[in-house]
Amino acid sequence: MTTSEKQDLLDYLYNFLSENKMNLFDKIIADRTKHVTVALENIFQPQNASAVLRTADVFGIQDVHVIENDNEYNVNPRVVHGASKWITLHKYNEQENNTLACINKLKADGYKVYGTTPHTNDCLIQDIPLDNRVALVFGTEMTGLSDIAMENVDGFVKIPMYGFTESLNISVSASICLYELKKRLKQSDINWQLSEEEQLDQLLIWAKKVIKDGTLIEKQYLEKLNL
Question: What is the DSSP string of 67-91?
Answer without folding.
Answer: E-SS------HHHHTTGGGTSEEEE
